[in-house]
């Protein structure tokens, strides 16, 4: 901005001022939000033993059962089967660790998928807002923390279940639009689950664009499990390729069958030419000596001492 | 008369509030949730579903919970940091964390 002021670029100065003001306002808002988030929760109200007992009875009715594992010190409920935007995610167990809760731990509960249908792109994401069994509470963060601090168990479980029943398309770990999309290991493109083909050799799943149908056996293979026929340049699986009897290059069954001598086109031509050359009536060819003639001693060479 | 009002919207709070006798659930909602629509909330009195015209009584527990609570994507770096801090705390104070 100083540079622009020195140069007298008034319009640039005005624009930079606007941007700076906007950024400062954003910073102010962010700092305000941050201050609110780190503000310790003041438990004005603390549930009594009777409240907790009533909460447990209400939870039993609301979720159709509460499980208390005395040994592990956990309390859990199960949600109904959750379906968001047509994607069935199954039931979830909300598991509250009472020891962690008592010690004021931030991660005192987990969300476990009972019938997991994880995102294809990340198996640890079992819900758009759950990764590694940890729920990202989003809008419900403060309310959930307050409910935990005040030991309002019914409200806590209801709030967590509420987050699980809602899809926020602006900030999921994995979008529901591409829930069953996974990455093709060959091209890296995200593809629908049904568009993957399994290689018959290595069992890798590749997208339709990266799979090759072998013309010999008509089965699907990935690019790594195929090789080109050196004659016709068609990709075939290893089982349908044979070796040229002369040069050992790959040949597909079609190319091999067309030549009874089991040779590739190059070796076949070479053999035909040599046959023609050596046939009856042909002029005898002058063969070059296989070994180069020895140079007389002293030409281009230095004698080695004995 | 005094009732316990639990508002699980936004920050979430639970506190005793004074209401006039014969105040209905809807009147209480409108007073405390000025810009909200009742149909977007699960309102319970003493942990049970209620009607909008149900009159409140002394010592009632009223909870207002939004039906839609949008989760988000956790900041992975801060999440990892929180876990590391928690682990460090657990190591430093094993008795307390156990």
Q: What is the topological layout?
A:
The complex is a heterodimer of chains A (306) and B (98).
Chain A: H1 2-7, H2 10-38, H3 49-63, E1 67-69, E2 74-78, E3 82-84, E4 87-90, E5 92-97, H4 98-102, E6 109-113, E7 125-127, E8 130-131, E9 134-135, H5 141-149, H6 153-164, E10 182-183, E11 190-191, E12 196-198, E13 205-207, E14 212-213, E15 220-221, E16 226-228, E17 235-237, E18 241-243, E19 250-252, H7 253-257, H8 265-277
Antiparallel strand pairs in A: 1-2, 2-5, 3-4, 5-6, 7-8, 8-9, 10-11, 12-13, 14-15, 16-17, 18-19
Helix pairs in contact in A: 3-6, 5-6
Chain B: E1 2-7, E2 13-18, H1 25-32, E3 41-45, E4 48-49, E5 61-66, H2 76-92, H3 94-97
Parallel strand pairs in B: 1-5
Antiparallel strand pairs in B: 1-2, 3-4, 3-5
Describe the fold and architecture.
The complex is a heterodimer of chains A (about 300) and B (about 100). Chain A has helices at about 1-5, 10-40, 50-65, 100, 140-150, 155-165, 255, 265-275; strands at about 65-70, 75-80, 80-85, 85-90, 90-95, 110-115, 125, 130, 135, 180-185, 190, 195-200, 205, 210-215, 220, 225-230, 235, 240-245, 250. With about 300 residues, chain A is of the alpha+beta class. In chain A, strands 1-2-5-6 form a four-stranded antiparallel β-sheet. A three-stranded antiparallel β-sheet of chain A has the order 7-8-9, with no helix packed on it. In chain A, a hairpin with a 2-residue loop joins β7 and β8. In chain A, α3 (about 50-65) runs parallel beside α6 (about 155-165). The longest helix of chain A has 29 residues, at about 10-40. A five-stranded mixed β-sheet of chain B has the order 2-1-5-3-4, with no helix packed on it. Chain B starts with a strand and ends with a helix. Chain B is globular and about 45 Å long. In chain B, β3 (about 40-45) and β4 (about 50) form a beta hairpin. Chain B is built from three helices and five strands; from the N terminus they run ββαβββαα. Chain B has helices spanning about 25-30, 75-90, 95; strands spanning about 1-5, 15-20, 40-45, 50, 60-65. Chain B has about 100 residues and is an alpha+beta fold. The chains are: A alpha+beta (about 300), B alpha+beta (about 100). The interface between A and B is large, with 44 and 32 residues.
